[in-house]
Amino acid sequence: MATRSVNRQRRGRTLVFLGLVGFLAVTGIVVARRAHGRTLAKEVEILDRRRTQLAGEAAKLDADLRALGSRGRLAPLVEQKLGMRVPADSQVTTLTLPGAARGTP
Q: Are 94 and 88 a contacting pair, CB within 8 Å?
């Protein structure tokens, strides 16, 4: 009878030990997953900031391009470098297509 009691004690201790090992393993996996999640969240935040910065830079470049391509900016440069000028109204001829007057293309 003493051997049965010893076997039951060992089996009980083994089950408690295995339960603790299992609990520690699951806890370690959860902690590792959370740490990895935090790392990914930081990377996403950095990429989001970079995307916002690049969108602002693209908007600035678009505005600069529109400003540099405007008639007010180009007219003096064209007059100086190419010797061109805006024609007088009497020098402009407007042409119309024959079908355009009736409203058909």
A: no
Sign of the CA dihedral with 69 first, then 73, 74, and 77 last: negative
* Residue 6 to residue 13: CA distance in whole angstroms: 10
Q: Which phi and psi angles does 69 have, rounded to 5°?
A: -95, 5
Label each residue of 6-60 as H, E or C: HHHHHHHHHHHHHHHHHHHHHHHHHHHHHHHHHHHHHHHHHHHHHHHHHHHHHHH
pTM exceeds 0.85 for this model:
no
Give per-residue pLDDT as tens, 62-85.
999 999 888 888 888 888 888 888
Helix extents (H) in 69-104: 71-82
Instruction: With a cut of 80, say whether residue 101 has pLDDT above it.
Output: no
